[in-house]
Amino acid sequence: MTEIPEHLLNRSKARRAAASGESTGDASPAVAASATPAAAAPAKKNVAPAPKAAVPDPVYVAAAKNRRKIPFWAMSALALLPIWALIYFVAVVPEEKVVEGPTAIGTAVYSSCAGCHGANGAGGAGQVLYEGNAIKTFPHIEDMLNFVYAGSQKYVAAGLATYGDPNREGGAHKPLGYNGNPMPQQGEKAGGGLNEAQILAVVCHIRYDLAGADPKSEEWAAEYEAWCSPDSEIYKALESGSTSFDTIDKDFSMLDPKPIAVGTEPRLGTSRK
Ligand code: HEC
């Protein structure tokens, strides 16, 4: 014989009691038998529903209630969750690039050039600088410093037909030869707003970040170390004022290669050796 679960028995007992108007659970079998559905129906209306507590939970609810909510062994893992989240974010969020040295300073200075030359040096109102263009025009950084310092109009006024490398691949660049507009003078003595350290910084940014000179290559390593690296003695000396564009070739004559005079007055450029 199949056993009827206790809670089902209790439930039917309670139902019967409710149907017959009794509040207690001990309804006699006789009363229960006489309570046919037809007879029970009208009676039900006048009777308050059985108190909820009398209805036991279904098995699965009871099981859920009796079960321990979080297994004890999971507690330690859960407690460590915030620490784990912290470690995760520290590991995943990229580190800020360390801002130091001429190229970093030059990146900030370049924001005043980007309107004409494009954020990446692709050109626009100003000459194309990226994809090797600026380093083709100026194989020597000294010539680029001089041109940016003085600007196109000073070159025209000095009667110079070209700036940068006179034997440039694709032809020497002529002042006002790009679209007829001048490259505005940047140096303080020429009427611009930048000091010499800032001009070196922005030129370093153009050569090494935009134009594609590789600081590790045989061609550019010496220039990069002397002029544009975070340890550049030339940059530090310009910043402190212990050298200037007019004296740099003498002050740093011990370098190999020896610097060409930069100067602040327009002058002809030089070719690649
Ligand atoms: C108002 C627009 C304008 C601004 C701002 C400007 N330039 Fe220029 N730049 C030009 C033009 C135009 C030329 C072409 C010069 C010419 O044809 O005489 C040029 C040329 C150059 C060249 C020579 C490139 C080559 O290969 O011939 C360099 C280097 C340069 N600019 C750097 C800079 C730097 C650095 C700044 C910011 C400090 C700057 N420019 C701001 C318009 C601008």
From TrEMBL:
Species this protein is from: freshwater metagenome
PROSITE patterns named among the record's database cross-references: CYTC
Residue span(s) of domain Cytochrome c: 101-210
Protein name in UniProt: Unannotated protein
GO molecular function term, any single one: heme binding
InterPro entries assigned: Cyt_c-like_dom (IPR009056), Cyt_c-like_dom_sf (IPR036909)
Keyword Ion transport: no
Keyword annotations from UniProtKB, A to Z: Heme, Iron, Membrane, Metal-binding, Transmembrane, Transmembrane helix
Gene3D superfamilies, A to Z: Cytochrome c-like domain
Membrane-spanning intervals of the chain: 72-93
Residue segments, region Disordered: 1-32
